[in-house]
């Protein structure tokens, strides 16, 4: 339980990576900390100027009272050759996303502004993204704890660690020298990862994440975007094998709205959903970052049409148009939404029966929380690992395509319309695999809601995190004093927003 003794507020500075799928969960964590602290915590989210809108959008998902407890400050985005001014988010960078990624993990480019901000604000604690490994060192020099917020869960984190060991500390062979990596000695019989489905950094820059792995082990603790009951065997391994000094499993941080109120939203997609039977609609969304070719979008469109199932499809590809006559043929059977859609609200709608997803960690958690089965179509990063959690461990979903797949855009084969139609129709047919997966997903949804209720596992872990940080501040002698700051100070201007 959070200490009730009077004291100065615990000032926590949160620093997410430059991508919407990290900024959103970090913002949700800030709200969770403020609520768990019951007035004793002052969380501040630190982002670059162009990402302030992403934080504001995430705050709007919460009540005004809760979101009003979170502050936002900015620091300069690093100068990157070839990147247009104001492009500071992987989700909005298009073909220049690699430039942001490279700059973000380049210590010489990103650390100076972040370090200057930490030293100027002198927080009582820092919660950093795994990419910014240097913040553990900066915080240690100031004598304040630095925890790492990992937006994935322990399954993906541990699998990634074992892949790094296999590639970096294996027999010295190049990652491309074999067809797959087999992971054994896990709380699972074995996990097979084809080389083409491994994260890109392991395929071409095998040792680059070593500093991040070391920072995870050195930091005050790992805060993970999962709940204990969802990944229990892997939560236990994370702690038992010493991968974290402390572990806090705190999700879901942004629960969906109550079912009773979902049908009252005014967006056109909700009016369309209101006309559909319960559990009849397939929701399709591939997240905010990875690109999909026009040829693949065409095949997906034709496959959805041929499946005969109602669908709500969110498309973020600028300039793409469906095949001629497609919208007329589909009619009221399907709905195409361009740009942004309120995903958590859509997933909570009673008409939605399944989710075709890229398996981003937040999307997987949102599907679980809504009790929805999944059709999986991973594209990049850790999404192929998250897919195995969905299909093999939790058994709440199935792959759309069993053919060759790759994390590299140029290597991807186009999944034909026939395969899409077959996967969708089979999964959603009465008595099919989707029905059994839905039953398991609903059981997990009940556990997710119990986890964040008073006394639940995530509720307790959030309180424990606040208590541990308050104790760490007390052990360090209370508030960090200005005398603890080295004489060198940068000219960073942190703006309250």
From TrEMBL:
Database matches in InterPro entries: UDP_glucos_trans (IPR002213), UDP_glycos_trans_CS (IPR035595)
The EC code for this enzyme is: 2.4.1.-
* Keywords noted in UniProt: Glycosyltransferase, Transferase
The reply on keyword Nucleus is no
Matches recorded under CDD domains: GT1_Gtf-like
**Does the keyword Cell cycle belong to this entry?**
no
GO molecular function annotations of the record: glycosyltransferase activity
Protein family membership: Belongs to the UDP-glycosyltransferase family.
**PANTHER family the UniProt entry points to:** GLYCOSYLTRANSFERASE (PTHR48047)
Name of this protein: Glycosyltransferase
Protein source organism: Urochloa decumbens
